[in-house]
Design brief:
Elements (H helix, E strand, L loop, with lengths): L1 E7 L6 E7 L2 E5 L1 E3 L14 H4 L5 E4 H6 L3 H6 L3 H5 L5 E4 L2 H9 L2 H5 L17 E3 L4 E4 L6 E4 L1 H11 L3 E3 L11 H25 L5 E6 L5 H13 L4 E4 L7 H18 L5 E3 L5 H9 L4 E3 L2 H7 L2 E3 L8 E3 L27 H9 L3 H27 L3 H9 L14
Parallel strand pairs: 4-14, 5-6, 6-10, 10-11, 11-12, 12-13, 13-14
Antiparallel strand pairs: 1-2, 2-3, 7-8, 8-9, 15-16
Helix pairs in contact: 7-8, 8-9, 9-10, 11-14, 11-15, 12-14, 13-14, 14-15
This protein binds zinc ion (ZN).
Amino acid sequence: MRLSVRTRDPASFARTGTLSLAHGEVRTPAFVPLATKGVIKTLEVHEAADLGFDMVLGNTFHLFLAPGHELIARLGGLHRFMGWDRPVITDSGGFQVFSMGHGAVADEIKGRGKPSPAGPNGSRATVQIAEAGVTFCSYLDGSARFLGPETSMAVQAALGSDIALVFDECTPFHGGRDYTARSTERTHRWLDRCLTWHAEHGPEGQAVYGIVQGGVEEDLRRASAQAVAARATGGIAIGGTLGEDKDQMFEVVRWTVEELDSAAPDRPRHLLGIGDVDDLVRGVELGIDTFDCAMPTRIGRHGMAVVPDPAGRWRVDLAKGRYRESDEPLLEGCPCPACAHGYTRAYLHYLLRARELTAMRVLTVHNLSYLQHLMASLRDAIDAGRLAEAARAVWDGAAPWEMPAAAPS
Ligand SMILES: [Zn+2]
């Protein structure tokens, strides 16, 4: 695996390049759609390629519980199982097991969280955290299950992903400095155990990404970035609690990238679970190469479309009554396959109210396509030396195909 950097933006950390993986190449910076349970919800996975995506993300935690990594391995691995022959990144399951223990970590990362009741070691009763790993109850049948560094790597080896992520603890925002410090140390010990396991048993061609933790403490984040960079990882992911709001989130990302830029300048960087339109632009400026996020697919299933409207957080809720008779198209000028059919907002509103599955599918296609066009335009802008202009256009409400240096659609 290697990242060949094509262009570095002189005014920021941004860069374009090509990530070469066992199942092909990923044009970076890139957004990675979620195929959490081996499917992009409402689509078939192969449709992501038609939308222009090079890689999808599978979820170790969910696939471990069902249908099980042994079955997927017997059926030829995750690529064959879900009908996708391009690159796949799998997360380690750490985020999911610790979310069960720490409450809604995802909400905390986005700054919506409240303190969650925690036991003396920061865990809830359903999850036991130990040095060996984490014991938890399956949400499917209540059975006790275990995931630790070696198990997570073994599951990802069986899935056969191009990129495996190491097993880490996703620390809660309200865990406090002492807990975050101890947890980050354990994440580094788990990183070593993952790399040891993978060196002996990992499949040929599978790259391993370490994960930087450290919460919102600057010294812990910087030290974690240095610790992960010092290990022989193929790439580096940024995980965990990133802050109370977006400004803090990107301050944490900046500390991390500043360390990585000197300690591991040529290794690819993945930002875990972040992917709003404004986040993608800021993340690209901060030198992130790949992003994954549930946003485009999740809001699509809730009746929302991604649109170039900064004041509306780049989304419009078509289930709202005001669209009942709207003759407007889903999004004027959008080159996506869903918009090509000219559906009106009134039609989509009606489908949503009637709970027709097609509405979710149309919005998922549109939302994913929007992010793909945004990333392609950002790549073009970096290559053309016009990233600052392109970012300003996004803040001013430009659609991806209206951005400076955007490729003709
Ligand atoms: Zn569209």
